[in-house]
Amino acid sequence: MQSLLNITTVLSVFLLLFVLFSVRRAHIRVEYSMSWLLAAGGMLLLSRARPVLDYATRHFGIPDTPLTLFLAAGSVFLLMFFRFSMIISALRDDNIALAQRVAILEFHIRSLQQTHE
Amino acid sequence: MIRPGPESLLIIVPAWNEEGCIADVIQDIRSQLPEIPVIVLDDASSDSTLQRARQAGAGVLPLPHHLGLGGCVQAGYKLAAELGFHYVIRVDGDGQHDARDIPRIFEALRTSGCEMVIGSRYCAGAPIQERGLRGIGIRFFRLVLRPILGRRVFDPTSGFVGVNRHALDVFSRSFPLDYPEIEALVVLQRRRFRFLEIPCKFRPRRTGRSSITALKSIYYIFHVLMGVFVNVLRYDRRFHRRSAGAEIHSEK
User: Fold this and answer.
1) What are the CA-CA distances from residue A80 to residues A20, A76, B222 (Å)?
2) What is the ipTM of this complex?
3) Domain spans, chain B
């Protein structure tokens, strides 16, 4: 169990650093990095707070402490994927509306040019 | 510059990589309706569809990147609404629709009071010619749509569709993006709009292949089914406020 927690700690630290470097290099925008930073921070805290994990395991009747850790990690990342799906959907809608607008404006410009010729 | 008059009709032709037949489609339409403006909605074709459409004398709405059929057709509806047209008929760019049927669809639009008129392959019990999964899909959606629409629809996947100004206003704001024909019927039903099917003969594609393969047909069924139920469940505040004012037509 202890080695699993240590590995989770190391992975969380790597994720934190990776996200911070990505933000610094402008590969990811600050607003979208927040979810990753919160998730990595949460996993880091959980992996270093064994009593909290043990309490949650007993409280929710989960058979194993590592399973509690995996459940927590899985839930956090599922929520993040859902949030990103919402963001992507909104971006796609905006993108389609913009593409349609550009096409319509191009049509009007061409029509005006033909009228003046 | 296009200046629509009263009772004005616009014909929109969504096309994606249809260089083989787009000019013929435009010529067909022009031979039947020489005075009616035709606009090809070029969904970012990688071939010379756009140039051929312009050479054939059509206006072209050039989308900057590929949006798919729904996004492409909605762009046409938005343009038509902006230009002030009263009726729009969609004719597919693959040559399947016969331009000789357009006057009948237009007449039905003007006289029936329906918001949408569908050129239907299977009206009056004509057998479904589509084979395999596509045929199954059409039969399946006939069954699914019957209780939702409260009436039979013979050809729910037909793209040969005319709409009046009311439907145009709705579709220019809200139109399904992928595989739009079936979902569009539900969008109209939600607003208590009426539709009418009139029998039309479809031709086989002149060139190219349909983008809907056997595998995509399965995806199509699930995708559209999901879209139909989302539209049924969707709560539209503006619609409910308007329907309280009883300004919307009753279902046929």
Assistant:
1) 17, 6, 25
2) 0.82
3) 9-244
